[in-house]
Design brief:
The complex is a heterodimer. Chain A is mainly alpha-helical. Chain A is built from 13 helices and eight strands. Chain A has one domain. Helices cover about 70% and strands about 5% of the residues of chain A. Chain B is mainly α. Chain B has one domain. Helices cover about 80% and strands about 0% of the residues of chain B. Chain B is built from 14 helices and two strands, in the order ααααααααααααββαα. Chain B is globular. The chains are: A mainly alpha, B mainly alpha. At the A-B interface, helix 1, helix 2, helix 3, strand 2 and helix 13 of A face helix 3, helix 4, helix 5 and helix 14 of B.
Chain lengths: ~450, ~325
């Protein structure tokens, strides 16, 4: 069998980007949670804050390191895997990435050193400022990379000269039609991921040590954060979908599994899309649901895949990934509301609920990855929607080289992912397990003094 | 006046790569030396680079970022030609980068595994970067002589990083570890001298244009100060280290500073050899450049932000000035 180098290059890049996004998803929102804790510590808050900060700053540092190293890999893979992308769209992609390095990467990486290790070397305000700058850096980084990603989905503000794209209007390029929705959607995704990580890891600690104060407090923080953000995410996700319908109707047709243009399209809860016969099997559907959600009318017309023959994404992966994302989202919404109700009424959290929260600790990752698969596979066969196809940008690197390095990356990433999850849960256990280091009285604690 | 933007970005890229090689060079070097130290010393060695490595590696992203931003036509050619060494370097950097965290958070045999991965990753990353350098010098040619040249360059650059790492430890440590660092410095000087000499002598044979640039009379006379200054810097490091060992000198910062100068001189020589090509003999910086409106957009931002980056980098190094102490996460 001769392996297809384009497919291998896509799998490799997809693997790397999927691995990478796990960690910024954690650090984006966790950076702001740490700022919140740090500011409260600085204002002389209660002692549990210091214990909570100590655990979560370790998890932050670990996540950050994994994000940095996989991010460096990505900066090289743009060139090694998609040289054609930079040749054709480099005039636009390059400056956006350049600004990310200049305004975000240096800021976060430099002040992370001070934030992690500089507590006894700088005054309290400077340490808090470092934490703020790290958070600003991670958010700025998300801003630029999502500007580029959104531009690839809804490109504008450019012209094509001799096969190369040239920028006409940077404002239009950065604030392209899907950017505000995608940026908000991603920031909320990060918030929800961290909410469930906080609640899940704290639940693990509470299962071991029921009255452990930092865990009780952080569980509460995580649950309430989730309960607030989940409904907002539902609303933003809906707006994002309407925006996609306007600019990328083929993606919506794949998401909803609509093969033929129709009025009053049903909302498919489950189906097996058949790409050969161009129809769905084993359908479980709510009549007129899709039309109602997307056009806000029961008999609204939705364009089917038949209108984009040869230019629409593969249906099954987009269709299923979307349902996984929404499924996890619904689970998050219900769970966080049940949790919030108990927490706000100061009820004891039952053991079974703690177990579910612990099991959901990394659920944000599942939803985020599924969402990325929807939007990135949904853009195929284009790399820049409607402008550049993925196939024409691929590298001439031999398939065997890609196969060897792909195997190596897959091995390393699996090792790291497993190690990360083990270490995070172990760290939590160490903190809660019989109190390795008893909390100092507030008056003697350098952080609160 | 018309600003030659491709030239400006060439200089910026050169400085970013030089900054990377020196800054990540010392922390990679410290990583390579880890297996030669005792258990408690290892923690202190890592502590001496812990606050800096993230930001140091960002210079690599800036370097490859400028290649991508300013010279998109060369970016693809260079990186797909260097596909395998780049992949090797990336995997090494990944393992080493995460080992910083895992080696202190894991327990039992896991801990030892991450320690090994930390030093192996440092060594392999340095070596792979040397191989990449050889590819750039020869214009990505294949064949046994070029392969040997690449291996030589890999060993040479790894040796140079070990020198930066050892002299950094001379600066940042005390007592037994300090004495060890001085001994490592001496070995690393010999390795680096061999590496620099071998690369310098082999390059003109690997690439005829370099031969012409250096050995045409009377140009050779104008260029002679560069190799002479490099030799003087090497001799200076050796003498300083010897005097520090005998206790005749207190200038612990001097070996590191002189090692940095070795890298600056070697870099200047290479820059002279290769200019104005990005892909030797095939593509100059002007042929590979991005459109002027894109270069302007980045240039304006970089003129404001880069001085700021340099300023707060200096601040960060000042915060951790003086001898290294063990690291703890403070709240």
């Amino acid at each position: 069998m001769i392996a297809d180098p384009i497919l291998l290059a896509r799998v490799q890049f997809g693997l790397n980007i999927a691995f990478h996004i796990l960690f910024p998803t954690v650090t984006l929102a966790l950076a702001w949670v740490l700022v919140y804790l740090r500011v409260r510590i600085g204002c002389g808050g209660p002692a549990w804050l210091t214990d909570a900060y100590r655990l979560w700053v370790k998890i932050f540092a670990l996540s950050f390191a994994l994000g940095v190293v996989s991010g460096i890999t990505m900066s090289f893979q743009f060139g090694t895997n998609w040289p054609g992308f930079m040749e054709q769209a480099g005039n636009i992609a390059g400056p956006l990435l350049g600004y990310e390095v200049l305004t975000a990467f240096f800021l976060e990486a430099t002040f992370l050193g001070v934030m992690l290790f500089g507590r006894d070397r700088v005054p309290g305000w400077a340490h808090t400022l470092s934490a703020v700058l790290v958070a600003v850096g991670t958010t700025a980084s998300a801003f630029w990379i999502l500007a580029l990603n959104s531009w690839m989905q809804t490109p504008q503000g450019f012209t094509e000269i001799d096969g190369r794209l040239h920028a006409l209007d940077w404002w239009a390029i950065i604030f392209n039609p899907s950017f505000p929705y995608r940026f908000t959607h991603m920031m909320l995704a990060s918030g929800l991921t961290v909410a469930f990580l906080l609640a899940g890891i704290s639940a693990l600690q509470l299962l071991r040590h029921r009255s452990f104060e930092p865990a009780r407090r952080m569980f509460r923080t995580g649950v309430l954060l989730g309960a607030v953000l989940a409904p907002v995410q539902v609303a933003v996700g809906d707006l994002h979908g309407l925006n996609t319908l306007e600019h990328q109707p083929a993606k919506i047709a794949a998401i909803e599994g609509i093969w033929q243009t129709e009025r009053g399209a049903p909302l498919l809860l489950f189906a097996l899309p058949d790409a050969e016969q161009r129809r769905n099997d084993f359908v479980v559907a709510i009549p007129m649901g899709a039309s109602l959600i997307l056009t806000h009318e029961t008999d609204g017309e939705l364009k089917g895949l038949n209108e984009f023959e040869g230019q629409h994404p593969p249906v099954a992966p987009v269709f299923f990934a979307f349902r996984i994302m929404v499924g996890v989202g619904v689970l998050m919404l219900s769970l966080s509301w049940v949790g919030a109700w108990l927490v706000l009424r100061h009820r004891e959290i039952p053991r079974w609920l703690l177990l579910i929260f612990a099991g959901m600790a990394f659920s944000g990752w599942v939803a985020t990855l599924a969402g990325w698969l929807v939007t990135e596979i949904g853009r195929q066969p284009y790399l820049v929607y409607g402008v550049i196809t993925t196939a024409e940008t691929a590298s001439s690197v031999p398939a065997s080289h890609i196969a060897v390095t792909l195997t190596a990356y897959a091995f390393v990433y699996t090792l790291l992912l497993v190690s990360y999850m083990i270490v995070v849960t172990q760290l939590a256990g160490k903190e809660a397990g019989g109190g390795a280091a008893p909390a100092m009285p507030a008056a003697f604690d350098p952080a609160t003094a | 006046m018309q600003l030659d933007l491709p030239l400006v970005f060439m200089v910026l890229m050169g400085l970013a790569i030089l900054a990377y090689v020196i800054l990540d060079g010392f922390d990679l070097g410290v990583g390579m030396l880890l297996p030669f130290a005792a258990r408690e010393e290892q923690d202190l060695m890592v502590a001496s680079i812990g606050p800096f490595w993230d930001a140091n590696e960002t210079w690599l992203v800036l370097g490859v970022g400028i290649l991508l931003v300013a010279f998109p036509l060369a970016h693809g050619i260079v990186l797909s030609s260097l596909y395998l060494p780049v992949a090797l370097m990336l995997i090494a950097l990944i393992l080493r980068g995460v080992a910083f965290e895992f080696r202190v958070k894991a327990s039992g045999w896991h801990r030892e595994l991450w320690n090994r991965l930390f030093s192996a990753g440092s060594l392999v990353a340095g070596f792979a970067q040397g191989v990449m350098l050889a590819g750039v010098i020869t214009g990505f040619l294949d064949g046994l002589p070029y392969l040997l040249f690449a291996l030589l360059a890999g060993a040479g650059l790894a040796g140079g990083y070990a020198l930066l790492g050892a002299t950094w430890l001379v600066l940042k440590t005390e007592g037994d570890l300090h004495a060890k660092a001085l001994r490592w410095s001496k070995v690393a000087i010999l390795l680096t001298v061999a590496g620099v000499a071998a690369i310098s002598l082999a390059s003109p044979f690997a690439n005829a244009a370099i031969m012409d640039k250096w050995f045409a009379w009377p140009r050779f006379l104008w260029l002679a100060p560069l190799p002479l200054a490099t030799a003087a810097a090497f001799a200076g490091i050796w003498r300083c280290v010897a005097r520090l060992q005998d206790g005749q000198s207190k200038r612990e910062w001097l070996p590191f500073v002189l090692s940095v100068w070795v890298f600056v001189f070697a870099f200047a020589g290479l820059a002279y050899s290769l200019f104005p090509y990005l892909v030797v003999g095939r593509m100059t910086i002007w042929q590979a450049a991005a459109a002027p409106e894109s270069l302007w957009f980045v240039f304006v931002g970089a003129s404001f932000v880069l001085p700021l980056v340099i300023a707060y980098t200096v601040v960060a190094y000042r915060v951790f000035w003086g001898k290294a102490r063990s690291l703890t996460y403070g709240a």
